[in-house]
Amino acid sequence: MIRRVRVAAAGEEHRLDQLSAPLDLGALTAGASGPWEVELGFGRGTWLVGRAEAGGGRFLGVELAATYYKILRRKAFSRRLTNLVAIRGEAQYVLDAVLPREFARAVHVYFPDPWPKARHHKRRFLDSLSLDLVLRLLEPGGRLLFATDHLEFGEETLAGLSGHPALDLRRVDGPWPGGPRTNYERKYEREGRPILRLEAVRVREEPVFHPAGEREVVAGWV
Fold first, then answer.
1. How far is the C-alpha of 150 from the C-alpha of 197, rounded, in Å?
2. Measured between alpha carbons, how far is 71 from 96 in angstroms, rounded to an integer?
3. For residue 112, what pLDDT is reported?
4. What separation, in Å, do the N-terminal and C-terminal C-alpha atoms of the chain show?
5. How far, in Å, CA of 209 to CA of 220, rounded?
6. Residue spans of beta strands (DSSP E) within the chain
7. Residue 212: DSSP 8-state
8. pLDDT per residue over 204-219, tens digit each?
9. Contact of 109 with 150, CB cutoff 8 Å
10. What is the mean pLDDT of residues 115-120?
11. CB under 8 Å to 18, separation ≥6 — which residues?
């Protein structure tokens, strides 16, 4: 699995076995500064590249699809973005074994695959176990932002986030400040499709697991 992880930063690409784990993100973004924001499943990378070009922080994206990873890598290298790190790998593995703990000011999850068939629901992202992996990235006071056009999946995610004792959750009414954050969102807004948006703030400093997944946890916070 390690051989499948690729890391692109500051005009260079590495395999994970060429780097330490957890990643030394400061070394990968030498010369850049500011708080970190993470996007899980960045697709074509439109929002992530735009944020990195605007500056004001450092940005990291995780994507499994090789095609999308290569698109973002090409954009980042051509624009000489030193404040952007792209990782190709399976998200839960990257969250558990590759990324450091509590380094991010914000984590963004936009329009993940809803796996609509009942027999595939176990593959959905942000269940009780994957949610704890995501929250380990956030510093105390950090924010998790989520959006989906699949309302049943969105309500399920809302219920799961509501049940986490470390989070203060609110449903976002209307569009995000600054407009759509993905190509999907822009398209769905034009079509008038309903979109469920959520924002959750980590309000507990000490690590805490989601009660629904605590008995199944394999990897802890440390």
1. 11
2. 25
3. 87
4. 21
5. 9
6. 6-9, 12-15, 36-40, 58-63, 84-88, 104-110, 138-148, 167-172, 196-202
7. T
8. 988 787 777 655 554 4
9. no
10. 53
11. none
Q: Which of 7-11, 82-86, 153-157, 213-217 has the lowest mean pLDDT?
A: 213-217
Question: Residue 31 has which token pair?
Answer: 């010369």
Return the pLDDT at 172.
95
Per annotation, catalytic residue among 113, 127, 132, 173? 113
- Give per-residue burial for 79-117: e unless 16+ CB within 10 Å, then b: eebbbbbbbbbebbbbbeebbeeebbbbbbbbbbebeee
Distance of CA 176 to the CA centre of its chain: 17
Which residue, among 176, 193, 168, 167, has the nearest Cα to 110 in the 3D structure?
A: 176
Given a contact cutoff of 8 angstroms between Cβ atoms, the answer to whether 166 and 134 are in contact is: no
State the amino acid at position 183 in one-letter form. Answer: N
- In angstroms, the CA 57 to CA 48 distance is 11
Which whole number is the average pLDDT over 176-198? 90
Mean pLDDT of 183-209: 91
Structure tokens at 184: 């999907």
The distance from CA 123 to its chain's CA centroid, rounded to whole angstroms, is: 16
Known catalytic residue at 113: yes
Structural domains of the chain, with CATH:
35-78+91-215 (3.40.50.150)
- Residue 159's SS3 state is helix
Tokens of 82: 């030193």
CB 65 within 8 A of CB 14: no
